[in-house]
DNA sequence: TGGCCGCCCATACTTAAGGGTGATTTAATG
DNA sequence: CATTAAATCACCCTTAAGTATGGGCGGCCA
């Protein structure tokens, strides 16, 4: 968390630095102020979009919903003791997503996903994600 | 779609206009260029965040939508250019074995398996073994 | 209300996986 | 015979995955 904040801070600092750099290099060449401003605006818009994507889409706006194609696996899932969240992770894992991608999709941290996967491996009695996928298929945990 | 793009274009135009407005109002007051730039940067960062939010909240990670052509294994395997050995590795990989375990089972070294898997990933156009398994299933490379 | 559980997050560490490059051997093939 | 492809293996380096541990928070329940 703190690391993330720090990272953003540093990133912005670097950006400001680059800004000044560009400023000197371009201004001495008599480039128009308008052009320079446009550049800055564009650059920071891009940065804004990026950070916006990273930050604002967190926590809320989570309507994955679905919950359609299931019925008989619920019992199996419950029997093994896999929680709802863990099941979500399992599904995404089976789709070939990396932990990081799963974390992004569920709007949680990488560490959280690692915890979930670890617990999953314990409950499925496997050691690797590929085995987990196989085991889940064998147990017909997927619709 | 086009309407959205147009909308954003117009919005940005307006913003640029406001920019110029602010520019004149502040520059005549002898405000420092740095301050002005900072303001612009901040403003457009905010705009970026906003647009980012709008974009990400709507878009929702399109499903693979690949739906590649599908026949059956032998032909498919040859078509993609997967060699016999690579196919063996792929099968074992799909069973959830680690590279080391595959190496042991085929009586070759770990590095060899790594080479095979790398080539497989290239040919299957994936980045991870879990994806490779998924892709192989989609393409019905398995009996 | 105290305890359990699910969920989230973090730090620190170890191991597995993957990328890039280069090299050798063998078998097939024009 | 020279070329080509498959298969084998090695070294280095980066990133992802997995393990261990601990803390915080909110809901549920006996």
Automatic annotation (TrEMBL), chains A, B:
Keywords: DNA-binding, Membrane, Transcription, Transcription regulation, Transmembrane, Transmembrane helix
Classification via CDD domains: LuxR_C_like
Entry-linked InterPro entries: Sig_transdc_resp-reg_C-effctor, Tscrpt_reg_LuxR_C, WH-like_DNA-bd_sf
The UniProt record lists the keyword Lipid biosynthesis: no
Residue stretches spanning the membrane: 5-27, 33-51
Start and end residues of each HTH luxR-type domain: 75-140
Pfam families for this protein: GerE
Name of the featured protein: Response regulator transcription factor
């Amino acid at each position: 968390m703190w690391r993330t904040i720090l990272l953003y801070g540093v990133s912005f600092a670097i950006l400001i630095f680059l800004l000044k750099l560009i400023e000197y290099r371009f201004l001495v060449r008599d480039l128009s102020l308008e052009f320079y401003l446009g550049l800055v605006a564009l650059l920071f818009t891009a940065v804004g979009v990026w950070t916006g994507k990273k930050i604002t889409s967190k926590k809320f706006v989570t309507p994955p919903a679905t919950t359609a194609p299931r019925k008989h696996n619920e019992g199996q899932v419950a029997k093994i003791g896999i929680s709802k969240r863990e099941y979500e992770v399992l599904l995404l894992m089976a789709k070939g997503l990396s932990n990081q991608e799963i974390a992004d999709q569920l709007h949680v941290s990488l560490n959280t996903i690692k915890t979930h996967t670890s617990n999953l491996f314990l409950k499925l009695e496997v050691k690797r994600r590929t085995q987990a996928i196989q085991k889940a298929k064998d147990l017909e945990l997927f619709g």
